[in-house]
Amino acid sequence: MEIVKIAISPYGLLVISIIVLAIGRFVFKKKYLNCFDIISNHFKCFKGSNGKISKISIFLYFIVPFLISLSLVQIRKLDDTVVNILTIIVSILTSMFFTLLIFILDMHKKVKYDKSYTASEALVSTRVLEETYYSIMFEILISVAILIMCFIELFAQSYDLYSSILIYYLAFVMLMNMLMILKRVYKVIDKDLKM
Predict the structure, then answer these.
(1) How far apart are CA 104 and CA 3, in angstroms?
(2) pTM for this one?
């Protein structure tokens, strides 16, 4: 009886759904929901000049948000108000990310065909724009995950410690990556304005 209660709980159903999706992916070879390329391409953005992923960058962008979420959950766990505010903000940001994708693709095309760029400037700008593209795609993926988890929390009304930590963590990872995207877009546009 306890197993049935766990299985029909919101997180039990979520785990069952993930297992069914994994079976569809690995057993039946359905790749419609495969987002591993987005994640792996995003992590390539953290490679240093030596070609290895920077451990300091991983710490700053993925471990520090976890520490912040642990401290924040001690101040205030999720509730209806926090989930509603987070859902609104993430929805707005998601639409902004899609708009930013179009802007990045236009900038990439401009850099590629603009003769005023030297070969080295075009190479650097193209690389920065590609990394920004991968980071934006990662942001959209995180936004969708946050929205799904917020909807589950809102309808389940469970608001436990682990879901609070996870949602806060993803929100802070999204925030850190937004700052990274802002820096990269600034770098390309600043170079373009000085030409």
Answers:
(1) 49
(2) 0.81
pLDDT at 33: 65
Coil, strand or helix: which one is 52? coil
Which residue's structure tokens are 């373009």?
192
Q: What is the DSSP letter of 53?
A: B
Write out the DSSP string of 27-38: TS---TT--HHH
Distance, CA of 194 to CA of 178 (rounded, Å): 24
The phi-psi region of residue 87 (left if phi > 0; otherwise alpha if psi is between -120 and 50; otherwise beta) is alpha
192 vs 195: CA distance, rounded Å: 5
pLDDT tens profile 3-30: 777 667 766 777 888 888 778 777 777 7
Give per-residue pLDDT as tens, 121-152.
Answer: 777 788 888 889 999 999 999 999 999 888 88
Neighbours of 41 (CB within 10 A): 16
- The residue count for the chain: 195
Q: Which two tokens stand for residue 151?
A: 């909807």
Sign for the CA dihedral angle at 56, 62, 67, 71 comes to: positive
2 residue type, one letter: E
Structure tokens at 21: 């999706």
Residue 99, both tokens? 């708009």
Task: State whether residue 47 is helix, strand or coil.
Answer: strand
Query: How far apart are the C-alpha atoms of 171 and 25, rounded to whole Å?
Result: 27
**E strand spans, 34-169:** none
Tokens of 123: 């190479």
